[in-house]
Design goal:
This protein has 15 helices and 42 strands.
Length: about 725
């Protein structure tokens, strides 16, 4: 049960709080009791605190899976409230149970649950703050729902057979935009204007479901993506009156492209103009999507009409945000064609002149999550920086430099009140699952608003990470984080677990995660090492670029040098008991290690890239073609040089026991990569085990599968390191 801080009685409550209190009482009658207690009663006196400290234990998977996952915080227009999503894994149902909550921004008030269906997410405030729109699949397909903040039950605004995603509310309050995956050729021609025909979509889906032939047929690329096959549907942009007085209208009727781009877009890629008359969105319209990272910005009238392209450079343009005065659209852009890890610049589009300027060419970090100040003079953003993600502010002009206003922490999901005075965001660390925080717009008065997991965390002993730098390949400085196990004793020797991150262009962050939780690993008695080797983000673009066509080169040396430095710096690490584990590119590095060194006692390879030529069965071909600098036929040397399969004959030399894991629905890194690797291990007598999840993709997400994954992972380490 979540224990909340108290709201004192005897005060006159504003309308939103009267509504919340109403729903609170209603929930109590339904048996959902939101328990509030005074902090003193909860914590007790000094001796009780000591007893609680003594009772702390190392985190287990069962502890981790109980944690409430906070996401999607949205501050109300008046700055007094934050609506957000709380998802909690349900082991029996084998899914996450997700509901909408609110909390006051002043701090010290109780967080309160607004919905109870277990299928709700993506809250968005109306401009007047009187209504919340959100997505819910409580009745089957995801639809847009509305919940009045002055009382009453939530009701569905949309009822499309194809469902609704990515909800947005127009600044004038009249219109709600959303996306829905439809058949582009299902067009109604009898109306005053063309529109997508939902009856046609429904009929076609029903016919498909009844058809005994389930063959996938493709005549172009991209025919499948991450975990799904693309079989004729496209994500289109719809609008509907907020009062429900008319049916939804498809603003991209007939479009053979997705809004936003499939599996690489998000709600921030769609935004209204300040007057509510126009929407700017991101789309990839290149004919061969599988080799293109060329997403452009388009504008379309809310009343209907042709979408107009306003950017045409060869990289990805996204996250468009209109300035409050309506004169500009700020967005972020990657300028290198075909490169998904290029640096994100802050760009500005002058709506009157049609002129584009690059504001941050000299800022060597990737700008994300753009937002404007109310006076249209300041742009806010986040950017990864050396395991953290600070919040920055910059003048909206050429030559301005972003300055950190909230530093040395990992922050994301920023939103501002209408007057720009209240900033709300998520904060997380390796010892703190995401919680909602607030601050003033200058970064002062930072305060934690939610404590959704306090009752669980209070019983756990976790150590914060230690960061250090060492000389990697070519004497380049490389950063790493190290976690000591709970109840650490410096006089003892501990086995070392080296975690290898994926991407390859990502970074190990000082942020909580559920798929590769370093605290759960360390809790089992391991010193956990996370190295941000060459190719990592957050260290400048040159550092990121240096993995291009060098997958097993400098990055491998960085990892080995990091291990060497750790052994010298930390005498409690046992060099005779070390393991390496990673997923995706981290799995590639695990395979590379298995074929290049025998210094580890165990290896775990998840969703690994093993055979670079066979990896051309991936869907996002731009990734392989950029990182290998060509195709398997135009640059076969690189595909051979950087493939662990090329060195498979060395497996028998090192014979490192290896656990191989994959998901059958992984179209990003086809699971046959792992089958090839396991076959080579078995044929050469290397102790090995293969685990394949038929219902998972690149990541293991279902709660029961996750439990099996962690148990298998830790059992493998224990067998060879303990």
């Amino acid at each position: 049960m979540v224990l909340h801080r108290v709201i004192l009685h005897g005060t006159i409550l504003p309308a939103p709080l009267r509504f919340i209190a109403f729903h609170w009482r209603k929930n109590e009658m339904k048996g959902v009791i939101l328990q509030c207690v005074f902090a003193s009663a909860l914590l007790g006196s000094g001796p009780a605190n000591s007893a609680q400290e003594t009772a702390k234990h190392a985190i287990t998977f069962d502890d981790m899976i109980k944690l409430h996952r906070i996401a999607e915080p949205q501050v109300s227009p008046d700055g007094k409230w934050v609506a957000y999503t709380v998802s909690t894994p349900d082991m029996d149902a084998n899914r996450g149970v997700s509901d909408i909550w609110v909390v006051p921004t002043a701090g010290g008030g109780a967080a309160m649950q607004l919905t109870q269906s277990g299928h709700d997410s993506s809250p968005v405030w109306s401009p007047d703050g009187k209504t919340l729109a959100f997505l819910s699949s409580r009745s089957g397909e995801s639809q847009v729902y509305l919940l009045s903040m002055v009382g009453g039950e939530a009701h569905a605004l949309t009822k499309l057979s194809t469902g609704a995603e990515m909800v947005k509310w127009s600044p004038d309050g009249k219109t709600i935009a959303f996306t829905s995956s439809v058949y582009p050729d299902c067009v109604s021609r009898s109306a005053a204007a063309l529109n997508n025909d939902d009856d046609c979509n429904k009929k076609r889906d029903e016919e498909k479901e009844k058809n005994k032939v389930k063959a996938h047929v493709a005549e172009h690329l991209l025919y499948r993506h991450w975990t799904h096959w693309n079989e004729g549907k496209r994500s289109h942009l719809f609008v509907i009156p907020a009062d429900g007085s008319a049916a939804p209208r498809d603003l991209t009727t007939g479009a053979e492209y997705d809004v936003p781009p499939d599996e690489r877009g998000r709600p921030a890629d769609i935004n209204f103009s300040p007057d509510g008359r126009e929407i700017c969105f991101t789309a990839v319209v290149d004919k061969m999507e599988a080799i293109s990272t060329n997403a452009d910005l388009f504008i379309v009238p809310v009343a209907g009409g042709e979408a107009k392209r306003i950017t045409r450079q060869s990289g990805f343009d996204g996250n468009p945000v209109y300035s409050p005065d309506g004169k500009f659209i700020a967005y972020h852009a990657q300028l290198t064609a075909g490169y998904e890890a290029d640096r994100w610049r802050v760009m500005i589009y002058d709506r009157a002149a049609g002129r584009i300027e690059n504001l941050t060419e000299t800022f060597d970090r990737s700008a994300d999550e753009l937002a404007w100040s109310p006076d249209s003079k300041t742009i806010y953003l986040t950017a990864e920086n050396e395991t953290q993600k600070p919040i920055y502010a910059m003048a909206a002009r050429l030559g301005a430099q972003p300055k950190q206003i909230i530093s040395d922490t990992y922050n994301t999901a920023i939103s501002f009140s209408a007057d720009g005075k209240t900033l709300v965001f998520e904060r997380t660390s390796l010892t703190l699952p995401a919680e909602v925080f607030a601050a003033s717009s200058d970064g002062s008065n930072v305060r934690q608003l939610t404590d959704q997991n306090d009752s669980i965390l209070a019983g756990l002993e976790m150590n914060p990470p230690e960061t250090f730098w060492f000389d990697g390949a070519e004497a380049t400085k490389v950063q790493a984080m190290l976690l000591r196990p709970p109840k650490f004793d410096a006089t003892k020797k501990y086995p070392l677990l080296v975690l290898l991150h994926g991407g390859p262009q990502t970074m190990w962050s000082n942020a909580w995660g559920y798929r590769w939780n370093a605290q759960v690993f360390s809790a089992a008695g391991y010193v956990t090492l996370m190295i941000n080797r060459r190719g990592s983000t957050g260290y400048g673009q040159k550092f990121t670029d240096e993995i291009t066509n060098d997958w097993g080169g400098k990055a491998y040396v960085d990892v080995m040098n990091g291990v060497d430095y750790t052994l010298k710096k930390y005498p409690f690490v046992d060099s005779s008991r070390m393991a390496a584990a990673g997923g995706s590119y981290g799995g590639y590095m695990a395979d590379w290690i298995a074929t290049h060194t025998g210094r580890f006692k165990a290896i775990i390879s998840h969703a690994s890239v093993y055979d670079k030529v066979a990896m051309y069965a991936t869907e996002e071909l731009w990734f392989e073609e950029h990182d290998m600098q060509g195709t398997p036929w135009s640059n076969p040397e690189s595909y051979k040089k950087w493939a662990p399969v090329t060195y498979a004959g060395e497996l028998v030399k090192f014979k490192t026991p290896t656990l191989v894991i994959a998901g059958e629905r992984d179209y990003r890194v086809p699971y046959t990569q792992s089958l090839e690797f396991f076959n080579a291990l078995q044929r050469q007598g290397v102790p090995s085990k293969l685990v394949v999840f038929p219902d998972e993709g690149h990541w293991v997400l279902k709660p029961q599968n996750a439990r099996f994954w962690y148990k298998t992972f830790l059992d493998w380490l224990a067998a060879y390191l303990k």
